[in-house]
């Protein structure tokens, strides 16, 4: 699938992180990539994040998965099932991501899929991230409101962040293939119109300043020795022992800033941090380690390498080494042939490696390491 009728440059200029946009079916040929029963099956599995939203009187209630299989037969009235990171488990859903790769990969989070019966929804709310809401099956009415923030009043609720006084400024009915783009913090409310309503939410992430500061500081602090302390060998007597002098403040401030100011170290840390898997407890490693002779032979034969849909690949160019590749929280220093391979792996989900690179020990070692950690696999089919 690809976006056949969509002006990317115009969208980035006028709408990305600025204002919502309704995009009427821009696909070359839209088809719903997942059956409702398959989504329900995922919601019953251990290790898959899912939520069921039901209406009890005038109040929405939420249940977290995994859900028992017979739960769906008990449901009445309007309800909504939400399943996170479906792209990790369904290749046809993962195929929704490449058309949106005009946004850098490191910003992409996952594809959440929702199924709702007539009248089902999660209520008016706002998110802290950009999202493309792709209507897959059935119809959904989306109302979009103003931009919100942390001061926006919310209804008291243990599980849902709902806006009590929602006033829509836009009102759209989405048909299969239609897309609604919603920037961060814009209020929105989607309600199924008729049965079998499926929506695919392609979500993007952006680290908060607090997250960056907290994690970068913790990373740097963990690497410091206990002997790295404040020192004042040039101390002179003060007129008041209760004062923290300006010179002491200057010295401690310089200690802290110096520890955090290394841009190259920050870049390497962020690559590792940002590429951590969404679900760290999922183990995708193969039962047996990759045999390097087999790896070399398959590369020479042109067998494609496929990325694990649950894996995160990214790279930076620090200068020396030529390239730093980050995959699922691991970093790889690459230059020469290995750097060419790293770029190719980050460019497309499926890669056929130039057979000439099969003779490179660095290339074989990198491919074997990525196979062993479950991030990469040969696709013999």
Automatic annotation (TrEMBL):
Q: Which residues form a coiled coil?
A: none
Q: Which organism is it from?
A: Sphingobium indicum (strain DSM 16413 / CCM 7287 / MTCC 6362 / UT26 / NBRC 101211 / UT26S)
The Swiss-Prot or TrEMBL record lists the needed cofactor(s) as: Fe(2+)
Transmembrane segment boundaries: none
User: Where's the JmjC domain?
Assistant: 92-221
Q: Which domain of life is it from?
A: Bacteria
Gene3D superfamilies for this protein = 50S ribosomal protein L16 arginine hydroxylase, Chain A, Domain 2, Cupin
Protein name (Swiss-Prot/TrEMBL): Transcription factor jumonji JmjC
Family annotation (InterPro entries): JmjC_dom, NO66-like, ROXA-like_wH
- Keyword set, alphabetical order: Dioxygenase, Iron, Metal-binding, Oxidoreductase
Cited Pfam families: JmjC_2, WHD_ROXA
The reply on keyword Iron is yes
A GO molecular function annotation here is: 2-oxoglutarate-dependent dioxygenase activity
């Amino acid at each position: 699938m690809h976006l056949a009728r969509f002006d990317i440059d115009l969208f980035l200029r006028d709408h990305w992180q600025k204002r919502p946009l309704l995009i009427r079916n821009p696909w070359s040929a839209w088809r719903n990539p997942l059956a409702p029963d398959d989504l329900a099956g995922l919601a019953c599995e251990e290790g898959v994040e899912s939520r069921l939203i039901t209406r009890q009187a005038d109040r929405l209630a939420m249940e977290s998965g995994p859900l028992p299989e017979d739960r769906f037969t008990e449901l009445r009235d309007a309800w909504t099932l939400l399943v996170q990171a479906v792209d990790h488990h369904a290749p046809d859903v993962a195929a929704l991501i490449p058309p949106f790769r005009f946004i850098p990969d490191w910003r992409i989070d996952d594809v959440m899929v929702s199924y709702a019966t007539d009248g089902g929804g999660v209520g008016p709310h706002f998110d802290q991230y950009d999202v493309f809401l792709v209507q897959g099956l059935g119809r959904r009415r989306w109302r979009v409101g103003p931009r919100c923030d942390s001061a926006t009043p919310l209804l008291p609720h243990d599980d849902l962040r709902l806006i009590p006084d929602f006033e829509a400024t836009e009102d759209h009915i989405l048909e299969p293939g239609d897309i609604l783009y919603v920037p961060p913090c814009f209020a929105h409310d989607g309600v199924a119109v008729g049965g079998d309503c499926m929506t695919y939410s392609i979500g993007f992430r952006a680290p908060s300043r607090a997250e960056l500061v907290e994690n970068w500081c913790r990373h740097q602090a963990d690497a410091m020795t206990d002997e790295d302390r404040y020192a004042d060998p040039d101390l002179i007597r003060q007129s008041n022992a209760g004062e923290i002098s300006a010179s002491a403040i200057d010295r401690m401030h310089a200690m802290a800033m110096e520890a955090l100011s290394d841009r190259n170290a920050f870049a390497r840390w962020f690559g590792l941090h940002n590429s951590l898997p969404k679900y760290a407890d999922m183990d995708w490693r193969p039962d047996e380690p990759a045999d390097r002779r087999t790896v070399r032979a398959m590369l020479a034969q042109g067998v494609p390498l496929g990325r694990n849909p649950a894996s995160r690949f990214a790279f930076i160019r620090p200068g020396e080494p030529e390239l730093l590749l980050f995959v699922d929280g691991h970093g790889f220093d690459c230059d020469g042939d290995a750097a060419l391979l790293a770029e190719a792996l980050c460019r497309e989900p499926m890669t056929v490696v130039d057979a000439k690179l099969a003779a490179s020990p660095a290339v074989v070692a990198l491919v074997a390491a990525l196979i062993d950690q479950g991030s990469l696999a040969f696709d013999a089919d």
